[in-house]
Amino acid sequence: MTEEVKLSVVVSLFTWIQKSRTSAKKRSKFRKFLDTFCKPSDYFSAMRLILPSLDRERGTYGLKESVLAVCLIDALGMSRDSSDALRLINWRKGGANTGASAGNFALVAAEILQRRQGTASGGLTIKELNDLLDHLASAESRAEKTAILSTLINKTNAQEMKWIIMIILKDLKLGISEKSIFHEFHPDAEDLFNVTCDLKLVCEKLRDRIQRHKRQDIEVGKAVRPQLARRVYDPASAWKKLHGKEVVVECKFDGDRIQIHKNRMEIHYYSRNFLDHPEYEHGMSNIIAQNILVDRCILDGEMLVWDSTLNRFADFGSNQEIAKAAKDGLDSERQLCYVAFDILYVGDTSVIHQSLKERHELLQKVVKPLKGHLEILVPNGGLNAHRPPGEPCWSCVTYSVDDVERFFKETIENRDEGIILKDLGSKWEPSDRSGKWLKLKPDYIHAGSDLDVLIIGGYYGSGRRGGEVAQFLVGLADRPDPNAYPRRFLSFCRVGTGLTDDDLETVVKKLKPYFRKYEYLKKTQPSFYQVTNNSKERPDVWIESPEKSIILSITSDIRTIRSEVFAAPYGLRFPRIDRVRYDKPWHECLDVQSFVELVHSSNGTTQKGTEQGNQKDGKTKRKEHTRKADKKSVHIVPSHFIRTDTSSVKGETLIFSNLMFYFVNVPPTYSLDSFHKMIVEHGGMFSMNLNNSVTHCVAAESKGIKYQAAKFHGEIIHYSWVLDCCSQKKLIPLQPKYFLFLSESSKKKLQQEVDQYSDPYYWDLDLADIKQLLNNIQRSENSNTIDYYRKKYCPKDRWSLFHSCSFYFYCSAHSLKADWQILLRLALKRLKLEVLMGGGKISENLNHATHLVVLSAPALDVNFDSLINSSFSFAEKNLMWKKGFHVVGSQWLENCLEQGQKLQEDQYSLKPIEVEETNFLESKLLQNLKEAVPDFNSVQNQVTTASPESKIKQRGGKDHLEKSISLVPPNHGNRKRRRPASNNTKEGKTVVSQAQRVPRRRGKMSVKINEDISEESGSDDKTNEEEIEKGKGKMERYGMVGRENYEFHQNQVVEDIELSELEAAENASKTWCNKASDVVMCETKNDQGCKKAEKFDLMEQDEGDCGHDSAKSEKLEVMVDPVQAMLLDMIPSLGIKHVETTNSVVENEKTGADNKAEIPVADNSEQPVKKKKVSYKDVAGELLKDW
Q: In this structure, are 772 and 658 located in the same domain?
């Protein structure tokens, strides 16, 4: 069975067929293989390997040479920089590295594989190979494809792998045609394949070569090979071939030949290569389903793009782009349009056996045309009924050769691809090119003008031309100064056909010494050449200098196209070499400016209109196959060269006397002839060409080929100037509003009369002028600039009410009823519009907003805590705690709008007054620590207050837990007294306290601790006074002892319990100072940029027990030494007096800003003001006497 046939047998067949020289031997080898190794039931497994390009059961591999080379390199495990890898990647290039196989990818790959694979076959069968190829086609990633190729390499040798690569590339190069293989397989195989395009069906139905198959008709859902047209070279020869028959001539559209198969709602779009194109479904399927009046049919036609603004079909090449736009749901002025010119199947019946005339009648009954979307091409009606006024018809019945010539002339003027002549009595034949349909294109009659271009680069060929330069990159010169040679050349096109092998070899041999290898990204092109570096433009070699190069005379289809690949402004369609100009020096090649003028003068073509440029001196390969009898020239003068007949025009005025007008383009509401007659009527002249005698170039719009060429001539005037002059019957001075384009010299002259936006200094403007000026001004993209001028020129206007504000709206309507949710959404929409009208911005990101506006139902009160606990992210919650960020209710916006001014946010703020501005991360940590540390009051109740140990513990109550470690040494020796700054700075940020110098209190006078002290601190002091009276928190008002100090004091009391309280306190203070010096140094380093990790950890531990009341009293913390703390613990009344004095002093100091005491910075070099010192020991002694 075929499934068990080894791949080596098929490889031997391929080798024998390739080596055989005659077609008969090739066919006999193929027939012998079928009879010997294949059974009828398994023909398809072998045929899909022999004809891989016709196999539609297996999808595309997605592997062209460049991608396949990379996959093979990875499958072999080679480095991409190795010589073999570079040889595989640069398979087209010749030389010592690539060898004689250059240009043939499979041979290059086989030579590389030969050194890495064994010579013996791996035993791979046809079935296994087909399975692996199916997996390769269905693999999506490159890694999967590489793995399958690696499996193939392990199971084959180099010779087998070479043919597998050729099967993947679908190009076996056997030297035997598809027609011969089909005929040898079965006499009816080709006919069956033409109507089904199904290789598997052919192999299954035609198993017996002797038994003939009844001719099968076409079916809906199976692609059919299209009928083709035979080429003719002039209208006379075409008419001669169809002489005596009823002939219809149609426009040959430049689009995609598509068959539409409709089976109810199932629609397929098959190309001429019988591939389905599902990308057309989104743009066409609904139109096809609604406007085709039968359930089942097959249409033959052309898929084009209709431009609704130009009211004509767009140029070739935009089908895929428009199809993708339709798939993405993008609106465009262009849309897909299908032009059906034949019908092959209706209902359940094939109609290809009916005449074309009958099929046209049937087409009109089945298809309902929809302008710009679905059209039919028939002589009477259809697309002809939708053509613009004055435009030529798209299809007509001809009765003489003059009718054909006239129709062909109109086709050239309309820049269409050509014409098709059809026999109205003929049947539709699949894949037929017998002559029932004939095609005539402009380049068949006479090509475009011969253009002398310079070779600037070359491309390596493939196949028999592999390893050598087979194509050339040619360029146009940039026009040099007078009496100078050109020094810069623009890439123009890529050309390789037209020369015989001998002529090509001669050119390459002359240029080879001057070839310089081009490596993109590693080397740049020579400075003489201007290129785009497009991937399709990059040559393999450059000509090192233009002086060493050769001029080629090239020709092409007469139509030019906009070039995006090459540096020249226009390119050519189907360029080919006419001859080599050895007689011309390099510097006499065509320049860009002359080429643009040629394109302009010929209405976007390169046609001269004479046959002189078509005389060919050299013999080319094309001429050897040309029939001289068919190449009869037809003299055709395009309409744009024919002058308007103005013989009947009578002159009215002479306002345009001595003026020569050239019209680049005209508006759709006017014709060119009407403008010409208008100019002559008022004494002027007009020219059909742009030459030096033209004084005024007139245009309606600033686009098109003619417009680009006219810019080289000078100023371009808007057509409205001509109309205004004629209506007012006087020559109106040319104002800037009438210019579409200004040359540099004219701009300099007008600088004294107009500003940069063409606003005249001395002329009055009307509304139309102002609109045009505003259109000339480019809108600034800088938002800061816009905001500056908006604030400057309308500061009090309601349009700038919310200037520089960005709002984020929060609507809390999740738990409300549906009615309330609708009302809130409407209110939210209204407020957003009001904000936009007031110059504000709406932000969808809280990080970009300045205001958070909370919108809620009247009965639902939203506070700051509920916002913090809502669904905001951690970063957004942190942002809401910042000072500059406003969290307000919607009533603030309502009041702003009502009063017409932006109100202060403070009274509408949802942030609580006691919420200090801090970092949300720190507040979260405090909350977690508060939950983790036990309640201080419960712990305090368990401690006996009579013992010295318990008294020291009380001094480390919850007030010291809520503060960061601050160190205050006592008055010991020469050490100066220090105290930390308040934890809450002026800006409201939480910082680590730093030790600072402060003067000691003098007598009963209190010292102002912080300039932030307010009346609130007074109330805090009263609270502390009450606590002191109750015997609680005696040490909370004085000093701050860290947890380390607390533990240290506890141990110290246990060890020295026999000491007096005063001595124990003094010893503790000494040890405290020793430990404090290290921490103070750490604080100083932190201020200089050191990390605060250790200190921050301590702060987190201590702040865990922070209470709300103690947080308020934090502003009046007075740092004292342990001796003072001990005295206050012994005599509570001393602390009460101090509180009263502090409150009175605070109130007095608030009344005068000048009396505010600054907190000195801790600096060893700064000497504090000396004041009279008071010894606590002396005070203690006096008190002990009384006590």
A: yes
